[in-house]
# Entry
Amino acid sequence: MSRLVRRLFAVLVCLLFALPVSASAARVLAPTIAGPAAPGTGANASFVAIDGNWQGSTVLWDEANQRYGQGSAIGAYAWGTGVWGRADWDAIFTPGSAVPRLGAWSGVVTEINHGDTCYNQEYSGTWGSARLVPLSLPGGTPESPCAPATGDRSAQPAPANLDNWVSRFTGYIRITDPGQYNFSVLYDDGFFFNLFGEAGQKVQLGLDFLNPRDRLGFTENLELSVGLYQFELGAWDRLQAGIIDLRWWRPGQTTWEFVPVGNLVAGVGLPGTFLLGSVGVLLAWFFGRRRVAVAPGAFGPPAGPAASAGPA
# Structure
């Protein structure tokens, strides 16, 4: 093979792997509950704001190499207050948690798109506006600094802004039209998303610790059938702007769209053999709750420009 032919072959290989995933390439995921289901009224949601002076974070930090995931617990450092990642989210939502709370709210929401006043003040023009987190600060709580989106990093107060808040959404996503789907999450600072199928099968994505704001989706489409798919979405924000936003996409769409309220089901009964399947889903969640798969991008519409999330 001549040198020219070898070079052309190498170029073709590079181009092949640079192409996006084709619409025919998808991971098949059977539903948690197969068959038609009644329209939903929303998803279960819980929001908690904690005392920003809490110094019990067990997220690990390597001070010498300036990276998460190894080293000492952040709570052991003098600056290590508040929420820093999934381990702290787990601690806050553990029944009987001793993490001090400033406020909490639970109920059903018709759309998964919630942020704080700093996010809406500085970033809604880029990423879209969000419903305010349904929590209010106790009287006398100092206003939170909010760095402007212009990049000069001079932090200005945002009226009644929340810091150190976490959220959890659960229920089922109702599929009425079989075919390929993708899901994405707009986050600040971190999140995890689990979508469960038949017999405890699960696809997941997420980013632990604190990260710059962005939208992240699955790297391959999902081939879904008519039925209900159980899901869990968890998120956390430490300082300044915070956002959590779940959307879906199908081939032919040019943008990510909110999952419609009729496709969000808060809960169902447990008839027949589904009880056994639910136990499988719960076991899969329990053993996988600390393993967060990171997807580097999404097949579908563009995620949008990255923006600063403030100091890490």
The longest helix spans residues 3-18.
